[in-house]
């Protein structure tokens, strides 16, 4: 791994290489959140954008991750591209994206996903699969062939990175690790032992 000064540029380069390599869903990322008491929870989500503002994903605000992020607005991401023997870890503070940004993304989702967002009480107990299917059918009837609006309980979160670490696997477990810590408007890089 060559030396770089901007971790966001390096992330974009690695992400593009993962896509070019043909890795299925390179945007799949493990998202870790925690309760105010520090009890962790992790799950896979899909990254929808990464730019100077941060790393963005979308979810139901009333889901477990949404509730945890509202109570404790800090999170961590871990990308793992096994075929390239690479990982990227991101930690930072979290905030909701604007309603407009959430709406702009929501309308690009397939119709079934938009109906599902309305029908699902994400992370809450479900009596049966048929109950979920009935709710999707009811939502479909409610909106008919018209526009499916953005649910008020659904939208995006953006992680503003405070630390980004790049891990490149090497022979004999002598891996390359470089961490970037936010330093004012810039970044401070440090090489880490494997």
The CA-CA distance between the termini, in Å, is 13 Å
In CATH, the architecture of the largest domain is Roll
The CATH class designation of the largest domain is Mainly Beta
Q: What would you give as the CATH superfamily of the largest domain?
A: Electron Transport, Fmn-binding Protein, Chain A
Put simply, the count of helices is 5
Q: How many individual β-strands?
A: 9
pLDDT averaged over residues: 95
Order of helices and strands: HEEEEHEEHHHEEE
The domain tally reads: 2
From the alpha carbons, calculate the radius of gyration and give it in angstroms: 19 Å
Give the proportion of residues in helices. Answer: 25-40%
- In what range is the share of β-strand residues? 35-45%
User: What characterizes the major β-sheet?
Assistant: 9 strands, antiparallel
Give the overall silhouette: elongated
Class of secondary structure makeup: alpha+beta
Output the CATH topology of the largest domain: Pnp Oxidase, Chain A
Structure, described:
The structure is a single chain. With 194 residues, the protein is an alpha+beta fold. It folds into 2 domains: 7-107 and 152-192, Roll (Pnp Oxidase, Chain A), CATH 2.30.110.10; 110-149, no CATH class. The chain is built from 5 helices and 9 strands, in the order H-E-E-E-E-H-E-E-H-H-H-E-E-E. Strands 1, 2, 3, 4, 5, 6, 7, 8 and 9 form a 9-stranded antiparallel β-sheet that branches. A hairpin with a 2-residue loop joins strand 3 and strand 4 (54-60). The longest helix is centred in the last third of the chain and has 15 residues, at 129-143. The relative contact order is 0.18.
